[in-house]
Design goal:
The protein is of the alpha+beta class and 234 residues long. Among the domains are: 85 residues, Elongation Factor Tu (Ef-tu), domain 3 (Beta Barrel); 29 residues, no CATH class. It has 5 helices and 12 strands. Strands 1-2-5-4-3-6 form a 6-stranded antiparallel barrel. Strands 7-8-11-10-9-12 form a 6-stranded antiparallel barrel. The longest helix has 20 residues.
Length: 234
């Protein structure tokens, strides 16, 4: 579990494709350097979020660590496009003393989105994003949370019909996360707020268990609320 508050930006110093020893079956191993700030309490087997993807530490030193990336993860995230020298957002898993400055982030990427447009607004930048899987848009709401490359950000606008949402990034954040330097055509990892998924599943289960269709049950709920309001006004 993570918070979406990026602790530091690391650098991919080594990338080995088809590294069976670390990736568990033909994936890729990544060595991330320039990250001593998050390794003072590191242990083998720890979880670290790399661009929003939860990965396991297989080796580490004072200023670098190594992870294995499976073929499935390479397909579902933008980690497959990393090269030696690429910057990556890093965050350690939460502890009992962690301040929850962002929101609950699992490190399980739902889809990739492409930066469709960027607009400067003073010293801030608005990013418009179009997801590869349009189905995730039902979990994106204005003023809600979304995790982009592991960073917790606030949605400023959504257009379900055209299939995009926007976030605005202030100047400080632009310097602290890799997305700040991304422009039109580049990819970002997306994890939607998992609370929305739980709510959706719970509501669906309630309707299924009621023996009535969702529409009919919703109509009854609304009618009950209207009746209660009328009684209170008498």
């Amino acid at each position: 579990m993570f918070t979406g508050i990026v602790e530091t930006i690391g650098t991919v110093s080594r990338l080995v494709q088809h590294d069976d020893s670390s990736s568990g079956g033909g994936g890729t191993s990544l060595t991330i350097s320039d990250c001593a700030a998050i390794l003072d309490d590191a242990h083998l087997g720890d979880s670290i979020s790399i661009n929003g993807t939860c990965l396991t530490v297989t080796e580490f030193g004072k200023d670098e660590f190594k992870v294995g990336v499976s073929p499935e993860t390479l397909r579902r995230t933008n980690l497959g496009s990393l090269r030696e020298g690429s910057g990556v957002n890093l965050e350690r898993a939460v502890s009992a003393s962690t301040r929850m400055g962002g929101h609950f982030v699992q490190g399980h990427v739902d889809t990739i989105a492409v930066v469709a447009e960027t607009r400067e607004d003073g010293n801030a930048i608005t990013f418009r994003l179009q997801p590869r899987e349009k189905s995730v848009l039902r979990y994106i709401v204005e003023k809600g949370y979304v995790t982009l490359d592991g960073a917790s950000l606030t949605v400023t606008a959504v257009n379900d019909e055209e299939g995009w949402w926007e976030i605005m990034m202030i100047a400080y954040t632009q310097e602290k996360v890799v997305m700040g330097k991304k422009r039109k055509g580049e990819d970002v990892n997306v994890e939607v707020d998992m609370v929305g998924k739980y709510v959706e599943k719970s509501v669906a289960a309630y309707f299924e268990g009621s023996g009535a269709s969702g529409g009919a049950m919703l109509e009854k709920m609304v009618q009950r609320l209207v009746d209660q309001r009328l009684q209170n006004t008498r």
